[in-house]
Amino acid sequence: MNLTLKVWRQEGPDAAGRFETYQANDVKDEMSFLEMLDNVNEALIEDGREPITFDSDCREGICGTCGLMINGQAHGPQKGTATCQLHMRKFTDGETIVIEPWRAAAFPVQKDLMVDRSALDAIIEAGGYISADTGAPRDANEILVPKPAADTAMDAAACIGCGACVAACPNGAGQLFTSAKLAHLNLLPQGQAERWKRTEDMVETMELFFGSCTNYGECQEACPKEIPIDFIALMNRDYLKSKIKNRKLIGQG
Amino acid sequence: MTATKEPPALTPDITSRPIAERHRRSPFPVVDLYRSSVGKKWVMALTGVALMGFVFFHMVGNLKMYLGPVDFNHYAEFLRELLVPILPRTVALWLMRIGLIVAFVLHIHCAYGLTVINRKARPTKYQSPRDYVAVSWAARTMRWSGIIVGLFLLFHLADLTWGIHAVNSEFVRGEAYQNLAYSLDRWPVALLYIIGNLALGFHLYHGTWSLFQTVGSMSPRFNPRHNPIRRGFAAGFAILVAGVNISFPIMVLAGVVG
Known about the structure:
The structure holds two protein chains of two kinds. By secondary structure, chain A is α+β, with helices and mostly antiparallel strands. Helix content of chain A is 36%, strand content 11%. The longest helix of chain A is centred in the C-terminal third of the chain and has 20 residues, at 230-249. Chain B is mainly alpha-helical. Chain B has a single domain, classed as 3 helical TM bundles of succinate and fumarate reductases (Up-down Bundle). Chain B is globular, with a radius of gyration of 22 Å. Chain B starts with 28 loop residues before the first helix and ends in a 5-residue tail after the last helix. At the A-B interface, helix 2, helix 6, helix 7 and helix 8 of A face helix 1, helix 2, helix 4 and helix 8 of B.
């Protein structure tokens, strides 16, 4: 099939960007979206023009590096799919596809379709870990984890940190990412010791970069791992509780 | 690990620019909460519950209109006589009014604060059209339905509480039924009441569903996914309140009451 692409081109973080139109010819159904872009780039290079810059790494939907706004949807039209796993059979011959980078204050455009997502790293650095840095590793079966808690924590842990939730949110909110990272640890026994400090620190770091949640639900539709907004509800409860519990923990409550 | 006075510092690797200032944590948790968007959402939800309670009982009380002027005016007088003789006349009514005013002010102030945060969070809009998947029309128009309800409320107060002459020239203090019947018999006013209540209905629909999410009762710990009960409750509540309220101007115009 032959496609027309309208791609956002921007030389650098401070440059003004614009859409440019390219032709993608002989696109096969089984190509991934990124392979299609690779082909366009090869043609651009052969013509001696600057290829389109975009993020990608594993190309099997598990690393969270890729991410494009395709026809106004984060990661394109297929639910539960990262851009790299989106195949061209989802598009029809002669279609025009508009490709834009993620847009958020926290995600400044670096070049073309590549954005800086280090604000997500800031949230992880604030508490997205457990401190278990002494002693020998414990036997895996020694810590009992209720099955429902393990399952729910696993659903949250599926987050690959691609930022599609922020991109899809009309408010540029980072709540789905933060709440998934919190629930992943806050629901497990290993996460309990630091639960309240983690919640307070991660939420307040999120507040430095992102917008607020208006419960639109666009994020869970865009999420390539189909993480539900139920985790945002859990985060809302835990944040309020953390304000009380953290004082109790140091003997002030 | 002890609770610290500040959120952790950002490392030099973080090159994204913050949109908010870092604050030292306040000794009063409520200050931190009111600063954060998550805390503001809590305030939105809790004041929303108070305002939902108000619109519900206001609607129930208004149903007395169908019983005629004696019952309706008796109910209006009852509100002023509430808790007499424990409290002097109209004091209980004023305490409730003060509670409502506080809830309104906080609700609107938080909505404003959240809007400012959200504008900052996406300074450059998408340059191509967005294709929204999940968001309902009611949710996307909360800001506008809220403003319409707020303006309608001012008109409603001027019409039937303050009795400003330019709005309601036949207003007689204490004659609640006659004032209402006169007011709704003017079709432009009846239309305003219908528009105001439609906006209220849409605002209530998203707000009622949304508050459960905000206060966390949809957490995966307590609630199975995609629970339809809260959607249904939100739709039912919105339709009940807006529907009954809209029935008054229609019935007055149709000549059934008044």
